[in-house]
């Protein structure tokens, strides 16, 4: 092969190499651009997915909130229809200690399925007014019992031989009407004031005219009685803790489920 032909071949090879290199660079650039675009798309999709996931969480939270509000509203509607209120909704400072919702009562077992203290709205308003007076003196009402269903009255009747202290279930009781409370007083530290007896002591010592009570117990009982009477309640003779709305005869006995007053 002549030198001229050899140079021609080398020139062609160089030109081809340069052309192929340029093409390779172009392809590499295009590949990198595609890879970058793919990465950007993946990032955009991930961001969109995160936004959608966050939006889903927001919608789920909003749905849960609306469901809770609807349940609470349904509860308020049910309570309004039955004509009763929770004492805590009228005056949250009143101490609720429903003994029949625990085993700490004369039967030794839990009677009420839930600790819900409810009353007629008018009776609850009188109770709140009495409590406002007591709080000015440094005391607070504690409620041991309020509305009592007829079925619970029957259980209490059969749980004791001391029939003078429980209502005959053959007849509507005042507790069944939602117009009666069993109460005592506590001080600022939550300690119960000395009274003639503990709650539901079925003995002559629980009577208002029992002569053997201490001077402090009599003074505290009389203070409790005085303020409750002034705010529209009446008493019975054999239980110092028992107070009836003076208008209790205006209201019928009813059978209401405690579950109506549970929002959870």
Description:
By secondary structure, the chain is of the alpha+beta class. The protein folds into two domains: 1-82; 84-261, Muramoyl-pentapeptide Carboxypeptidase, domain 2 (2-Layer Sandwich). Helices cover 47% and strands 10% of the residues. The protein has five helices and seven strands. Strands 2-4-5-7-6 form a five-stranded mixed sheet, covered by helices on one side. A hairpin with a 6-residue loop joins strand 6 and strand 7 (242-245). It is rod-shaped, with a radius of gyration of 40 Å. The model has no long low-confidence stretch (mean pLDDT 85).
Using the CA coordinates, give the radius of gyration.
Answer: 40 Å
Shape: rod-shaped
What does the main sheet amount to? 5 strands, mixed
How far is the first residue's CA from the last residue's CA?
Answer: 101 Å
Strand order of the largest sheet: 2-4-5-7-6
By DSSP (H or I, 4+ residues per run), the number of helices equals 5
- The level-1 CATH class of the largest domain: Alpha Beta
- Second-tier CATH architecture of the largest domain: 2-Layer Sandwich
The domain count comes to: 2
Mean pLDDT: 85
Q: In summary, what is this structure?
A:
The protein has helices at 3-82, 87-90, 121-136, 150-158, 215-230; strands at 85-86, 95-96, 118-119, 140-145, 180-186, 233-235, 242-245.
